[in-house]
Input
Amino acid sequence: MDIYFYNTLTKKKEKFEPIKEGEVKIYSCGPTVYKDATIGNLRTYIFMDSLRRTLKYNGYKLKHAMNITDVGHLVSDGDEGEDKMIKSSRETGKDPLEIATYYTKLFLDDCKKLNIDMPEIICKATEHIEDMEKFVEKLIENGYAYETSTAIYFDVSKLDNYGILSGINLKEQKAGARIEIDEEKKNPYDFALWIKAPKNHLMKWESPWGLCYPGWHIECSAMSNKYLGDVFDIHTGGVDLIPTHHENEIAQSKGVTGKIPARYWMHGEFLLIDGGKMSKSLNNAYLLSDIINKGYEPLSYKLLNFSSHYRNKLNFTWEALDSSSKALQKLREGYRKHLEGNDVIEEDKINEYKEQFLEAINDDLNMPLAMAIVWEVIKRNEKSKQYAQVLLDFDRVLGLEIDKENEVQELPDEVKNLIEERKKARENKDYEKSDEIRNKIEKMGYKVKDSKDGMQVQKA
Ligand code: AMP
Ligand code: ZN
Output
């Protein structure tokens, strides 16, 4: 079945055709490791996971590289401010590489907890300084870069169409150019490829232009070229990377190879918190550990991500996470129900579901639609091992560990005793006492729900 992806480059949904039959080469912009990855960052990697799994489900072999930015990402996405790693190092008194190692491990652990299928190649910027330097040399040689007293800049006026991805029109922009920090820059949109390190700068490398450190964008051009070649199939990242980072990656690659490095550019939309921006100052830059500490399984957050298409914003609320957590339990219960059943289903019906699911994921990773089909199978009245098999097959794309036993929450003895007491009160129709005990349980941090199946008590 054909696959369609929305391509930011052409602004259209296009049929996916890999350069080499049966194989897909992908590059994903990885995290900047001077801080914890927020659940916003992780949304982008859940999107990457769905992409990888969908391609594999369609039988493709993958060669996928993702960078770890451990140098060069300045405080602003332009060329202003301090290197984020150095700033963190100054604030914490720790060595930049120590910080990078620490946060890289946390990021990889989070990805594991979310059952994210990871790229075959994970490459660190600091381990590819020489490759970047060669890229800069080539850009100078080809006439696309120039040296000032502070840096080597890319000259955007040398390209016919700088801004191809985001549609920036350089002529219109020039009039209202921002205040420049480097007066020697030729054009406002020229960006730093290689930065001359000030004295006492912690991360710097010997180069033909003295002690320097790389700009942020060069690492992705140099590493994608090294591992995937001049032109590969798909490039991914979050939408914020379109106007600066990815535009500059295209510029750099065109300056060296004359080509746009990827054929399909895919971007994930942002995660919002309670309908607004996520930020440290609002105290809502939640981490996966916050979710875990509230007693939720990380995969509940992954399931929440499937409630919105990757190109739409997703709003995170704790209520929505709670619903996803319950939905995940129901999904696993549904799988088990089918696994224990013996009904026989016509092969045509099974194939129909499989086809619908494939159509959904192949239509630009439409996970909300794919989930609707999953729920249809779960809710079938017949109980059939064939359905369990189908669900397990779908889980190759979802990665929700659908065959995992639900984790039973162990309640403390004190709560268990109160539950028994309340049951007795209700049997005796002593509703006043029942309410009193309910309040007691809730004060201890548990939720009490009465239904036709009895009383359910869970951590609030
Ligand atoms: P960074 O670690 O800041 O370099 O970002 C890593 C990835 O997370 C990039 O692809 C960003 O586009 C993405 N990202 C940052 N904030 C969010 C957010 N709120 N929602 C989704 N993706 C995000
Ligand atoms: Zn990048």
